[in-house]
Write a structure and sequence with these properties.
By secondary structure, the protein is an alpha/beta fold. The chain has 8 helices and 10 strands. Helix 3 packs parallel to helix 5, helix 4 packs across helix 5 and helix 5 packs parallel to helix 6. It is globular, with a radius of gyration of 18 Å. The structure holds adenosine-5'-triphosphate (ATP). The site of adenosine-5'-triphosphate (ATP) has 12 residues, from strand 1, strand 2 and helix 1. InterPro entries: AAA+_ATPase, ABC_transporter-like_ATP-bd, ABC_transporter-like_CS, ABC_transpr_LolD-like, MacB-like_ATP-bd, P-loop_NTPase. Keywords: ATP-binding, Nucleotide-binding, Transport.
Length: 234
């Protein structure tokens, strides 16, 4: 299993009030798997994704990545896994405003210690931006791009290190239907290209039903898993 959560809890303190955002969730994501997570607003989906990606620390329980307990590692080791193995696509693109599209895409590579040469990496970033349909925006800054275009840059950025897993939190949140379909196509294309697992938080039921597996969150708990597509694939 690539990612395993074992009885994971995450609690936020607001004043003296404890909000149990994720309450004892256990799950496993296999390599190459496409998993969709659905549930009402506030049910804990984003928190669960942050836990899977080692961005949020569980108060209780363990998060394993390739059998390594993420929170037993040093900060550097955990960052290395995040940068090399995980591609994050969040609802707000969070691009660096002072870098153009190409430099934004290359950024995660700069934070990792791979040995590909810099000239190659810019060529690859360019190819990724072509793949997401932004060949004429290579040198555009984020404020010169539409929301959908920024999202596509963020997807290219998430792919630069050929991630073992892509964690996408409502990547199509505020996009029109056509752009939404494009973004999903890109994520699935990336999954095919790199053999990445794809974990997608979405409010789009149709899209969710195309996944191998559907997880339902309610009040911080996983209430059920829909496995019907899985048998079709195996
Ligand atoms: N940083 C935080 N501080 C305090 N409470 C938080 C924080 N982040 C999330 N929460 C609370 O934890 C609960 C779960 O939030 P989370 O964002 O994980 O839900 P969600 O299912 O992703 O919601 P949405 O679909 O609206 O994005 C909510 O009650 C939320 O208010």
């Amino acid at each position: 299993m690539m990612i395993q959560l074992k009885d994971v809890w995450r609690v936020y303190m607001v004043g003296d009030h404890a909000i149990e955002a994720v309450r004892g969730v256990s799950l496993a994501i296999a390599s190459g798997e496409f998993v969709a997570i659905v549930g009402h607003s506030g049910s804990g989906k984003s928190t669960l994704l942050s836990l899977m990606g080692g961005l949020a620390r569980p108060m209780r329980g363990a998060v394993l990545f390739d059998s390594a307990n993420l929170w037993a590692l040093s900060d550097d080791e955990r960052s290395e896994i995040r940068n090399k193995k995980i591609g994050f696509v969040f609802q707000f693109a969070s691009l660096i405003p002072t870098l153009d599209a190409l430099d934004n895409v290359v950024l995660p590579y700069m934070f990792s210690s791979w040995e590909r040469r810099k000239t190659d990496i810019y060529e690859e970033a360019r190819e990724l931006l072509v793949m997401v349909g932004l060949e004429d925006k290579l040198h555009a800054y984020p404020n010169e791009l539409s929301g959908g275009q920024q999202r596509r840059v963020a997807i290219a950025r998430a792919l630069i290190n050929h991630p073992a897993v892509i964690l996408a939190d409502e990547p199509t949140g505020d996009l029109d239907e056509e752009t939404e379909a494009d973004v999903i196509k890109l994520l699935l294309e990336a999954r095919r290209r790199y053999g990445s697992a794809l974990v997608l938080v979405t409010h789009n039921r149709n899209l969710a039903h195309t996944a191998d597996r559907l997880l339902h969150m309610k009040n911080g708990s996983l209430i059920y898993e829909d496995l019907r597509n899985r048998s079709a694939r195996n």
